[in-house]
Specification:
This protein is mainly α. It has a domain of 55 residues: Serine Threonine Protein Phosphatase 5, Tetratricopeptide repeat, CATH 1.25.40. The chain is 77% helix and 0% strand. It has twelve helices and no strands. The protein is elongated, with a radius of gyration of 21 Å. It starts with a helix and ends in a 6-residue tail after the last helix.
């Protein structure tokens, strides 16, 4: 990981190089990466735009521009950037995953599920794509499907506390209280500080007429 001070120095070096050759797309791209690493997303976007002026078919510039736009809350523009990246390389699992993540965050759950499905067609081992697909399914009330999807995520990464928690939520919402309690227990084994999980476990215990924690 580049430290902020080091990255500032690196950025100055790229600026010097770019002064000598303003059409150096690699220089602009590297500057964008350096700016991203220190959280200067607006300036990073400007650098990626310079890359794209020189080479509009640069997948990585569109992809990282999408991530930077997402980081500053410009979600519609982020989706457009990921769409451009995916026009260039539709077989990039990460591009579909990040597009799905943005769609999920802004409540466009059905579109997010389609994007996650695309990511998983390409890379079925992407546990985060399974997890966020499950979250989107939960948010649309498709709890039985969500449970199966969380199981997929947990096959790949059984230590994902959030996946156990949201599996518990889906089970709770379908009245499977004993199974929900087991899932909440798994989540709490991994992350004992999850107060919301503990509270929802108590609710499930009450509904299942059990009093032991």
């Amino acid at each position: 990981m580049i430290k902020r001070g080091d990255s500032d120095e690196v950025k100055k070096g790229f600026e010097k190089a770019i002064e000598n050759d303003s059409h150096d797309s690699a220089g602009w791209y590297s500057k964008g990466q350096a700016l991203t690493n220190i959280g200067q997303y607006d300036e990073a976007i400007e650098a990626y735009n310079k890359v794209l002026e020189i080479n509009p078919q640069d997948f990585a510039a569109w992809y990282y521009k999408g991530q930077a736009l997402n980081n500053i809350g410009q979600y519609d523009d982020a989706i457009k950037a990921f769409d451009k990246a995916l026009e260039i390389n539709p077989q990039n699992s990460a591009g579909w995953y990040h597009k799905g993540h943005v769609l999920n965050n802004i409540g466009r759950y059905d579109e997010a599920i389609k994007a996650f499905d695309k990511a998983l067609e390409i890379n079925p081992q992407n546990s985060l794509a399974w997890y966020y697909k499950g979250e989107a399914l939960n948010n649309t009330g498709r709890y039985d499907e969500a449970i199966k999807v969380f199981d997929k995520a947990l096959e790949i990464n059984p230590y994902d506390s959030a996946a156990w928690y949201y599996k518990g939520e889906a089970l709770n919402n379908t009245g499977q209280y004993d199974e929900a309690i087991k899932a909440y227990n798994k989540a709490l084994e991994i992350n004992p500080q999850n107060s919301l999980c503990l509270s929802n476990k108590r609710n499930a215990l009450n509904k299942s007429n059990k009093s032991d924690l």
